[in-house]
Amino acid sequence: MRKMLCLILLLLGLLRTTTAQTIPKELWGTWVVRREVPTTTISCWGEKEAKTLIGTEVEYSATLFRWNKVVTKNPEAKTTTITADQFHEENSGGSMNGSQVTFRQLGIKADKVTQVMVQHPDAKVTEATTEIPGDTVLIKDENTIIFSVCQVYFEAKRRVSPAHN
Question: Above 70 in pLDDT, residue 4?
């Protein structure tokens, strides 16, 4: 009986395993970091580091993830739906005096959004983090994404190529 239970648990575990996914098409393209989003978080970055991201580009496709000159080829991504409550719980401190971040602070009016987490080797963007800007994003709308680096939140807009006549 115990062996049968172990076999069933093993099979259920195999069924729950998902295959690696590429970055979803809705994120493909080049995004320009437009602004820092004001939040009440405690950050490992200061104003100087945050300003260096404004105007930089993040690019996503089926075959690459790029921020500036940092490139990850054939990236794998995990796409989930996250609710406003889940986001607050996972990204805020445990006390009222700790970091607090909400969808409302980020300008997200929906109750839930798509979150994409791009997996990559550790990067050395600064001494404070191994994150790559844009490696975990919230898709605010089809032309706007939100991401954080060291608990500093940024908004990026899709770069639209001019139409050819």
Answer: no
Q: Phi and psi of 163, rounded to 5°?
A: -70, 140
Cα torsion at 73, 126, 101, 140 (round to 10°)?
Answer: -30
Quote the tokens at residue 148: 């954080």
Q: Across the beta sheet with 136-141, what order do the strands follow?
A: 70-73, 64-67, 57-60, 29-37, 152-158, 144-149, 136-141, 112-119, 76-83
Number of residues in the chain: 165
- DSSP codes of every residue in 82-104: EEHHHHHHHHS-SSTTS-B--HH
Q: What is the pLDDT of residues 59-91, one digit of tens each?
A: 999 999 999 888 999 999 999 999 999 999 999
DSSP strand E in 2-134: where? 29-37, 57-60, 64-67, 70-73, 76-83, 112-119
